[in-house]
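quick one before i forget lol
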Amino acid sequence: MSTDYDAAALHAAADRHVLTPMLRDRRMIYTRGEGCRLWDAEGNEYLDAVSGTNGVALVGHSPPRVAEAVAKQFTTLSSHFLNTASPPQIELARRISETAPTGPSKTYLCPGGGEAVEAALKLAMRITGKGEIFSLHGGYHGTGFGGLGLLGLPQVRDWFPGGIRWPTFQQVPSADPYRPTVGEGDDWRPAARALEAAIDSGTYNNVAAVILELVQGPGGHVALPREYVQEVRRITAARGILLIVDEVQTGLARCGAMWCSDLYDVKPDIVTIGKAWGGGFPFGAVIASADLITAEIEATPWHILTFQNQPLQAAAALAVMDIVEEDGLVERCAAIGRRATERFLEMAEDHAVIGDVRGPGLFIGVDLVVDRETREPATEACREALDHALDLGLLTYFGGAGNVLKFKPPAVTSDADIETMLDRCEEVIAFVERGVEAGRTGARPDPLAAAT
């Protein structure tokens, strides 16, 4: 297949025919990917510091072993009716059960993380016979109608003016240790008490589950305190409420452990996963403690998708699990994460715009601020930074209030490429810092100015 493209024709066709929910002024068209690299239609090369969409390319772009596994499965059995099973699906569920933070488990497969959350909510309601769900401020669990009802990011809710939260879904403050909305500093107790009070006094005694991310990815890589999460587990367990941990972004080695739940020493009832597990193939799953699943629950429809429990996604995930285990990617994420965190902390000594560096393993967020004392997000100064990063040959993204630089490259990235990514990140941070200074004087940042 030819790798030569008429870039102008591709862009014109995309503008004419492709419906894009998040189109930016600068549309990127990528034609090839390998490892931590992507190439666009013009032939420009980029280092991918966010692994596709927030972690999909954990084992790199276009991983040959995953491609081979999917191709082989496609020639054997590509799909089957939605309430039947296949050998790869059974084997994947068995292997997940061996390490799942829930303990022995049963696994439901679906096309993506957002779909997994929708399924998990329905399963929790079916298990408990109750309909109320609690989520946290700053949380993100997809943008289906169920996920929107759990959404804790005001800037994303603004996409849907007049949107209605599902009537039985409620939210409480999170224990954000950097920007607490209740209490002061890193004291997690007020947030825990807020959840407890809301459950005991603000419901119809109909709470099925609490759902949370251990590290709030789109919310700015906010790592919830370990003690807080353990207290949430105590609060829910004491009341017969299920705990759903959303590990769509954090699961599978990314945080320097097989599961982020392992770092928190917490045992959830249900876990949702996605992104990295497919190696680029669409993948999502719900992992439920086997003790919760009765014959009646499985015999009665509680969620239906055409592409549920299918063999191709299972084959992809099995190949990804093999790569993670055989290539030691849990340890690799931990090692790269330590090095990257060290570098960002060194950068903070020279760049006052860095307010905080956080996140376990290779799930790092660099919080860029106007002022370290006020911790005001440098959102405005970050607006042009994505394009500046592209000019440098770096793919990254900003979470939180649009001010938290994400660093979560593929785990297969070489040490040399990691250092190059970090050098380019520092250039982006310096660009934002110049934007902050220009904002004080009313000037625009000069992208060509030397980094300071």
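fyi The first strand starts at residue 30 and ends at 34.
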